[in-house]
């Protein structure tokens, strides 16, 4: 037949919309036209496909007028991912392959001039969409392990175009790829490495249990970075669905999800990061650090050193768990459900409140330094905890308690309680959830209202206090929030207290 349709997938954020590669051969002046909003790399596929077919001893219908349409026409197409589908479409349209065989397949892959198959980025989102469509997937061998992370999907792989052609003709059938178990990721650093800092460890446990954001402030060398790096190790393991979400983002970023499967991400961008690097963007929008930290931890060290405009862009993802990027041609939404752990010094020199008295900062300098962080941003950080230098012990010491395993068990129990009660972690409760699950008796409610008024907390900050108190009660396996839980939650708003003194 002179018309063939082959299924493929585009890359649009973390989505993989279906693209139908329509190939038509007609009589007339020999030519090859590619339409359907292709970008430069896609337009160049005409030459790659021509050479790949010729060098594979397959007939290229060069005496025909060839029209290739990538539908839908209004969807931007980029990269070399459509090379394989175009080549197979030409072979079907010229009668070298039965078009009915390809009806149950989707094809992804870039072609070398020799006919070899080269890997592409963003295979995992396409594999997920292919499974939902009920088709099998044809990909280069180098993409096989990644595509096979999707259970229930038949993945056919090859190193050369001729191997796939022989398979589709029924001459040399290829077996479905059998996935091997990915290598176990390296263990997280253990919490027992941190000596002392009992209050900070408790705050880290509370943050992990309820999914709360945490700000650590104190002099240099108190262990802020050390503590932050231990948070992923006390969080529960990712579910399969969460692991696939994380791996899909890593796939479109070209990071190789198999290297970290199924590990929670820990991202620590430098304070010189631009807005596009932190939240995503660019002429062809890509995920930023907030999306690459999805289902994991985003650690921002030296928080006031970040550009204030960049930090303000964190407000939306901190509230909604998503980031929306709008461009003239397209609008994309990336997931960004992360835990923010931030660290800062209490003043420009870093030693305010140090017993040695070496801080030389004036009140104006301290105020100017802290004013780099806006109130709305601080309101979205549930726990504010000061850290102090503790006596140095150089002698060999036993591992500190608690360790990550013990803390992780407590965190898992608290999160299980929250998910059974309300279907989400406490940090993600809405107003209706607050009214239903964070109730107080009249005496405690009056006491909390007075404390909020003394501290000058906003409505948002007061809601955060209630959520943290709910988490503290869950860690104690108590159904009703009591005053001790509220008092501990208020202790984690010490930056607010200092600002209002």
From TrEMBL:
<dbReference type="InterPro" id="IPR025158">
    <property type="entry name" value="Mg_chelat-rel_C"/>
</dbReference>
<dbReference type="GO" id="GO:0003677">
    <property type="term" value="F:DNA binding"/>
</dbReference>
<protein>
    <submittedName>
        <fullName>Magnesium chelatase family protein</fullName>
    </submittedName>
</protein>
<dbReference type="InterPro" id="IPR000523">
    <property type="entry name" value="Mg_chelatse_chII-like_cat_dom"/>
</dbReference>
<dbReference type="Pfam" id="PF13541">
    <property type="entry name" value="ChlI"/>
</dbReference>
<keyword id="KW-0547">Nucleotide-binding</keyword>
<dbReference type="Pfam" id="PF13335">
    <property type="entry name" value="Mg_chelatase_C"/>
</dbReference>
<comment type="similarity">
    <text>Belongs to the Mg-chelatase subunits D/I family. ComM subfamily.</text>
</comment>
<feature type="domain" description="AAA+ ATPase">
    <location>
        <begin position="210"/>
        <end position="391"/>
    </location>
</feature>
<dbReference type="InterPro" id="IPR014721">
    <property type="entry name" value="Ribsml_uS5_D2-typ_fold_subgr"/>
</dbReference>
<dbReference type="InterPro" id="IPR003593">
    <property type="entry name" value="AAA+_ATPase"/>
</dbReference>
<dbReference type="InterPro" id="IPR020568">
    <property type="entry name" value="Ribosomal_Su5_D2-typ_SF"/>
</dbReference>
<dbReference type="GO" id="GO:0005524">
    <property type="term" value="F:ATP binding"/>
</dbReference>
<keyword id="KW-0067">ATP-binding</keyword>
<dbReference type="InterPro" id="IPR045006">
    <property type="entry name" value="CHLI-like"/>
</dbReference>
<dbReference type="InterPro" id="IPR004482">
    <property type="entry name" value="Mg_chelat-rel"/>
</dbReference>
<dbReference type="Pfam" id="PF01078">
    <property type="entry name" value="Mg_chelatase"/>
</dbReference>
<dbReference type="InterPro" id="IPR001208">
    <property type="entry name" value="MCM_dom"/>
</dbReference>
<dbReference type="InterPro" id="IPR027417">
    <property type="entry name" value="P-loop_NTPase"/>
</dbReference>
């Amino acid at each position: 037949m002179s018309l063939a349709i082959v299924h493929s997938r585009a890359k649009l954020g973390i989505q993989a919309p279906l693209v139908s590669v329509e190939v038509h051969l007609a009589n007339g002046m020999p030519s090859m036209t590619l339409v359907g909003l292709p970008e430069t790399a896609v337009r160049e596929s005409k030459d790659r496909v021509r050479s790949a077919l010729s060098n594979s001893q397959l007939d290229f219908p060069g005496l025909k007028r060839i029209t290739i349409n990538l539908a839908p026409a209004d969807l931007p197409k980029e990269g070399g991912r459509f090379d394989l589908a175009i080549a197979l479409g030409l072979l079907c349209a010229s009668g070298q392959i039965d078009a009915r065989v390809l009806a149950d397949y989707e094809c992804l892959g870039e072609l070398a001039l020799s006919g070899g198959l080269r890997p592409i980025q963003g295979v995992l989102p396409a594999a997920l969409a292919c499974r939902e469509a009920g088709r099998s997937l044809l990909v280069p061998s180098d993409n096989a392990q990644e595509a096979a992370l999707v259970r229930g999907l038949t993945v056919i792989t090859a190193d050369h175009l001729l191997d796939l052609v022989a398979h589709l003709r029924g001459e040399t059938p290829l077996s479905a790829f059998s996935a091997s178990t990915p290598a176990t990721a390296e263990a997280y650093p253990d919490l027992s490495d941190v000596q002392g800092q009992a209050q900070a460890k408790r705050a880290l446990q509370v943050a992990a249990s309820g999914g709360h954001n945490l700000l650590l402030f104190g002099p240099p060398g108190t262990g802020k970075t050390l503590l932050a790096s231990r948070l992923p190790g006390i969080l529960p393991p990712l579910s399969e669905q969460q692991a696939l979400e994380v791996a899909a983002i890593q796939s479109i970023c070209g990071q190789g999800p198999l290297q970290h499967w199924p590990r929670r991400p820990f991202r620590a961008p430098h304070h010189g990061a631009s807005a596009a690097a932190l939240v995503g963007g660019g002429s062809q929008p890509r995920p930023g650090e907030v999306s690459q930290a999805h289902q994991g931890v985003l650690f921002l060290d030296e928080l006031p050193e970040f550009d204030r405009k960049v930090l303000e862009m964190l407000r939306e993802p901190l509230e909604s768990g998503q980031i929306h990027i709008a461009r003239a041609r397209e609008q994309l939404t990336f997931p960004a459900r992360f835990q923010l752990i931030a660290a800062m010094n209490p003043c420009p020199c870093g030693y305010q409140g140090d017993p040695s008295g070496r801080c030389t900062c004036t009140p104006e300098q301290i105020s100017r330094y802290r004013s780099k962080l806006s109130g709305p941003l601080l309101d979205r950080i549930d726990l504010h905890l000061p850290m102090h230098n503790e006596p140095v012990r150089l002698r060999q010491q036993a591992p500190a308690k608690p360790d990550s395993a013990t803390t992780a068990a407590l965190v898992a129990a608290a999160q299980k309680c929250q998910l059974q009660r309300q279907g989400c972690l406490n940090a993600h409760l809405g107003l209706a959830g607050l009214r239903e699950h964070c109730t107080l008796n009249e005496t405690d409610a009056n006491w909390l209202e007075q404390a909020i008024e003394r501290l000058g907390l906003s409505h948002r900050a007061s809601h955060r206090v209630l959520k943290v108190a709910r988490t503290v009660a869950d860690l104690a396996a108590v159904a009703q929030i009591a005053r001790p839980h509220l008092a501990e939650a208020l202790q984690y708003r010490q930056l607010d207290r200092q600002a209002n003194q």
